[in-house]
Amino acid sequence: MGKLVVIEGLDGAGKRTLADGLTKALHDQGHTVATFAFPRYGRSVHADLVREGLHRRHGDLTDSVYGMGLLYALDRREAAPEIRAGLYTHDVVLLDRYVASNAAYGAARLRQRADGEFVRWVREIEIDRFGLPVPDAQILLKVPTAVAAERAEKRAAAEAGRAKDAYESDDDLQARCAAVYDELAALSWLSGWRVVDGAAGVDHGALVGGLVHPG
């Protein structure tokens, strides 16, 4: 049975780059890896509704924190069989965003903390009710909010059809979300967390060793 490892962080933190680096390091150490990224835009109707909502294409849908949270959760529920299959056939399943993203962003939108009602609801829906696999480890990729915002801006300018959405454009939301992420990591929410400085160079090999062979 493989290990389920999740990368979390703000929009523009560099999660995709870290996922690529960890995947290479895992392969170099002889491990097999399956990768997923959430939301699964272009693959899931729920994810596509999220994207459309974030660009205000469905009226006031985005105003409902619980409504958006449920769409994110349904996207993962649909992907759960693939994740479980990956855990049976690979040493590591590496996810770019997972349940904690839903918890952090929703709580931040409601100005709640990690021990608040929304985070409890996310766990009840995604883990208890939908039965999503629980992570073995979560990585919080931390960068200053200003750095994350600048990277998100550059990505939006460089990638066709990748205009910043309602969450990425809200600097105050991003700052509150960063605080909730810190609290989730401190609480070891769902699993142990490793906090990585995304503004400094990441030693992918050492990080992989600590995840796959902890202790």
Describe this structure in words.
One of its GO terms (biological process) is dTTP biosynthetic process. Phosphorylation of dTMP to form dTDP in both de novo and salvage pathways of dTTP synthesis. With 215 residues, this protein is of the alpha/beta class. It has one domain: P-loop containing nucleotide triphosphate hydrolases (Rossmann fold), CATH 3.40.50.300. The protein is built from eight helices and five strands; from the N terminus they run E-H-E-H-H-E-H-H-E-H-H-E-H. The two termini are 19 Å apart.
Topology:
Elements: E1 3-8, H1 15-28, E2 33-37, H2 45-54, H3 65-89, E3 92-96, H4 99-109, H5 117-129, E4 137-142, H6 145-158, H7 171-186, E5 192-197, H8 204-212
Parallel strand pairs: 1-3, 1-4, 2-3, 4-5
Keywords: ATP-binding, Kinase, Nucleotide biosynthesis, Nucleotide-binding, Transferase
Protein name: Thymidylate kinase
InterPro entries: P-loop_NTPase, Thymidylate_kin-like_dom, Thymidylate_kinase
